[in-house]
UniProtKB/TrEMBL annotation:
Source taxon at top rank: Eukaryota
Gene3D superfamilies: SGNH hydrolase (3.40.50.1110)
Protein name: GDSL esterase/lipase
Pfam families in UniProt: Lipase_GDSL (PF00657)
Recorded coiled-coil stretches: none
Keyword vocabulary terms for this entry: Hydrolase, Lipid degradation, Lipid metabolism, Signal
Source taxonomy: Eukaryota, Viridiplantae, Streptophyta, Embryophyta, Tracheophyta
């Protein structure tokens, strides 16, 4: 279980270390995945997979729980900080409109996995297929804001982070224990 948590963290940190220095023109940043990268989408859902109360957020700059499954910044925050960009907002945030769309969006949702039955205990989470559907909606909104060609340039030039799979291991272990294996 520790390996399932450490490997994605190391991959994320390697992405930060390998990322180029901040460029003059900011890149959009799209995030897909689970609780390691969710920055608040689940706050807008009726679900038990939430991080909207302490101890979450106690070391975040505002010292408030934000929906990040962390006491402070998460991997996308650190990457954005390293690139000199503002963090992408949760896709479900009402603040994600207008020029904020140019920054990108975070589609991640705690509890999801590669498998569709991962996280069923949380009832209402944004499964990876739904995250991709939201990404299509995002692109429609972006095209309406900046036009077809500019939207295509923004999306094609974006940084993309996908982090998931840890919950699949947790569910597998839970089921094996439940079966007595």
């Amino acid at each position: 279980m520790v390996a399932a948590l450490v490997v994605p963290l190391l991959v994320g940190l390697l992405a930060v270390a390998a990322a180029p220095a901040p460029a003059s023109a900011a890149r959009a940043f799209f995030v897909f995945g689970d609780s390691l990268v969710d920055n608040g989408n689940n706050n807008y859902l009726i679900t038990t997979a939430r991080a909207d109360a302490p101890p979450y957020g106690i070391d975040y700059p505002t010292h408030q729980a934000t929906g990040r499954f962390s006491n402070g910044l998460n991997i996308p925050d650190i990457i954005s900080e390293h690139l000199g960009a503002e963090p992408a907002l949760p896709y479900l945030s009402p603040e994600l409109r207008g020029d904020k769309l140019l920054v990108g969006a975070n589609f991640a949702s705690a509890g999801v996995g590669i498998l569709n039955d991962t996280g069923v205990q949380f009832v209402n989470i944004i499964r990876i297929g739904d995250q991709l559907q939201y990404f299509r909606e995002y692109q429609r909104k972006l095209r309406a804001l900046v036009g077809e060609e500019q939207a295509k340039r923004i999306v094609n030039g974006a940084l993309v982070l996908i982090t998931l799979g840890g919950n699949d291991f947790v569910n597998l272990l839970y089921n094996l224990i439940k079966l007595g294996l």
